[in-house]
Protein: Probable proline--tRNA ligase, mitochondrial
Amino acid sequence: PPSAGRLPAKVPPNLQLRSAKRLLVSQLFQPFNLQVGEEAGWEGRAGEPACRSQKLMLQGGLVYPSVPGCYYYLPPAVRAMEKLVKVVDGEMQAVGGQKLNMPSLSSAGLWRASGRWDRMGPELLRLVDRHDKAYCLAPTHEEVVTELVAAQSNLSYKQLPLRLYQVTRKFRDEPKPRFGLLRSREFYMKDMYTFDASEEAARQTYDLVCDAYRSLFDRLGLPFVKVQAATGSIGGTMSHEFQLPADVGEDRLLLCPDGHFAANVEMLNGERTSCPTCGEKLTQTKGIEVGHTFYLGTKYSSVFNAVFYSAKNKPQLAEMGCYGLGITRILAASIEVLSTEDSIRWPSLIAPYQLCLIPPKRGSKEEEEGVTLLERVYDDLTEALPHLTGDLVVDDRTQLTIGKRLKDANKLGYPYVVIAGKRVCEDPPVFEVWNQNAGEVLFLTKEGIIELLSKVQVP
Amino acid sequence: PPSAGRLPAKVPPNLQLRSAKRLLVSQLFQPFNLQVGEEAGWEGRAGEPACRSQKLMLQGGLVYPSVPGCYYYLPPAVRAMEKLVKVVDGEMQAVGGQKLNMPSLSSAGLWRASGRWDRMGPELLRLVDRHDKAYCLAPTHEEVVTELVAAQSNLSYKQLPLRLYQVTRKFRDEPKPRFGLLRSREFYMKDMYTFDASEEAARQTYDLVCDAYRSLFDRLGLPFVKVQAATGSIGGTMSHEFQLPADVGEDRLLLCPDGHFAANVEMLNGERTSCPTCGEKLTQTKGIEVGHTFYLGTKYSSVFNAVFYSAKNKPQLAEMGCYGLGITRILAASIEVLSTEDSIRWPSLIAPYQLCLIPPKRGSKEEEEGVTLLERVYDDLTEALPHLTGDLVVDDRTQLTIGKRLKDANKLGYPYVVIAGKRVCEDPPVFEVWNQNAGEVLFLTKEGIIELLSKVQVP
Structure:
């Protein structure tokens, strides 16, 4: 029997789907959806090598190539990125992080002061403005943030530690941009800069931020290793990388199987084959760098005179650290390490959408009943679990079989898929529910679905 | 009597304030806070004229000047901006907007194809990469988005309208950057691009997006006028601006007092003094442009061949529109039009923090009792109204008088200020509550405060 508020029964079922504010696959801007049956130019620009995440992200309509090393982030990728940023914000604010936002245009003078205008070489994108003043597009903000803090007169030791961070677009003119979002020329990075009153305090900050990174990757369900790393052009006296082991990774790591030692080979002098602590044979693996921490000491604070006033009211250089997370790189790296050859798997917390609902095929005998029941599942879910509004999508391409749409849903990596199949005609109606990350299929009533999804977290 | 969970009475009261995860003014990175008693270089760079919002935003530690026309957005400004973006997202998604994110590096070829590589002149920031390829930093994305849509083969009329938008950093080499965030060289803009199957449909989209802009400014409580405007370098056949009347505005507007006519003088040929509809004398006012809409027709779709397939399966050029909102400019313009000479007033919905709590002065006889009670207000508020967590700040600078801190809170524009004054010793304890936007002072119990704040909306 038609429920209250439903449209009259004469309206075709898939027009009913469109009548309410429900998200419909047919209306989503996803090249995947637009080019059914085609493999949309996933090999990228001519000659560019592809990896699994690049292929899957192009195929699935998450990104689209623009100029070399630059991508359009399409709507599902933006959703995933915004969720990831919320999770990162939570972790950063839990360790006292305060979010700011610094300019991309960075004066040559600032970079000359630190010596990096020359040292960074062709990785720095440079330009002049209408007055012929020289700038670079900042790939990182040590100089810029230190100038800000140096400008605050009367900064007291009582106000330290200062832990400032941003999530912004960065620029780096990579010699070989490749692997999609894994190595691009424009990318989003979370960069935190910390200012402490003593070396001891700065080391506590360092450990605290490393713990926040651990917590982040644990919550995302990403297997990572923390390795000793070279300080490179950033500088400082201690550095670690957070790496996701993956064949496509560009870093080579040496790991002690018992966890006593882990390092990026680039920081080792010569060959090392056994663990310096326990003597075990080290194993080698490749990794994708997703986070990088640096203990900077006074390298930048001394250049820009970033001082605070001590308890004795003496000016003293701040002890600094900097801490990066590759936001867009984490999206791609997650897909790289979690997915199968042809199906995206997301960390549940940041999947663009949590649930895809698949109504019966047009003209099938379950059509009428199935569409009505699925609408009710959608509406009751958003009522019972309002935080999931926006995370539910109906695949209304009812000209396609359920099987074809399930295959697409599989490819795109919705954590849950609910199908109105033959058993919707039972009393009570039963739906087929795919829990993708658990790898199981359940048969549940509407109430069972609500119960199952009540455990889903969105940031 | 000390409540359960409080620290032992021997701990100094303002250490108690620090013991829990409460936001404390003394720990916030606000130059305002850091430079008590100083007016932190608000006049900006040498010779740059200042306006009210620029002065207040610099004084209040919302922004700090970097290279000319570029600003650090400091933590409270980032909070306000993130709230504004949420409100904008809601309005855009309510009209079917899908959010994407396009690169800043934009190839010269694309801009040459549209003719804007030359036409934009020195406003375009240009650079070459390591391979000597020429790019600009996109100030707007008509070319870039049209190329994306043109690349989607098989786009069907059934998938239209497409309403794609982004909120990203834009670059424009202004000849005279000034007035802080009102005219800067780096800024955040929301830009939507729409693709329709017919002129009629495109005009419906145009009206719909204009209505969304009205709704946005109404929700922010900002008085605006929608005026006819010139199409400028963007082009197209129809354009409107959303303007906030203000003396510092750089646009001159002619308005019919009865609302029959409103236009930017730049789009009128010669002088016009009376309304073309009703003959009333037009009044002139200055305005800050905060939104701009363009009906583009096929100006860009014809250049890049952005076609869809009609019901008869014929390729047809999409009818386009584009729609901008100056995100960072809206922040400054809001402050410009709502504030007094020396006190920031925010649209309530996007105030960085909703409430400032002021405990008694150190050493006063209310200190012990007041701190304890204020802690309870803070904790009970976050429990009863969890969506306000993060919106409450304690001004723990208890070395300062209540009066001094109230003055600061006034300047910074918290919509609500709760003071633990002499009446906290009454039974039940009574707090002094300033409702800044209503311009009233109330005396309320803790329960009264929770009741009052239960009406506060955060996006």
